Amino acid sequence: MDRILIIDDDIHIGNMLEGVLLKNGYLTARAYSGTEALLLLERDSFSLILLDLMLPGVSGEELLAKISATPTIVLSAKSDTATKVLVLSNGAVDYMSKPFDIDELLARIRLALKKTAGSENTRILRFKDIELDTDTHTVTIEESSAHLTRTEYAILKLLMQSGEQVLGKLSILDRISFDTPDCTESSLKQHLSNLRRKLRDLDGCDHIESVWGIGVRLC
User: Fold this and answer.
1) What confidence category does residue 119 fall into, taking pLDDT thresholds of 50, 70 and 90?
2) What are the structural domains of the chain?
């Protein structure tokens, strides 16, 4: 049965969402701040997250970068286009402005869960000639393969999901911190170097490009 985490500091909205979800056969959990949500996510997993942006402690925007592994629908009173574009670019699967229609929200929840179920059947992530097995943490290029450490896997997965977008090192650290809490700013350089070497050993090519003063990207 699908379990949905409601992250909203408004008790009345949270109670309403919880009642509707329970009535429609979902299991629920509640968090009233971004900090509380992170603690819950450290010890439990969820099928979907409903996220408010204006939270005490860690904001919804900050939290979104740390929970991108779980499908997230943002529910917010912020209705400007810039905010919507930002959160969708940072990993949210959907965005609804408050107040919202409950029937429409339920339809979007069903769609998000259906997409997630379909993506779970596709364990191979691809970017150009690179294939990454999300089950075994194995990277393959031209039939040559290498096993990646937990941190190397998290970095490569993020880079592949970002396409040719340049990612700053602090942004990489922030976005992989939930999966690799032991990776630090000082150790990230070594992890990137090891990952570069493993990819180069597979086909003799450099696949990670450093963009001076900005960050790195796949090339």
Assistant:
1) low
2) 3-120 (3.40.50.2300), 124-218 (1.10.10.10)
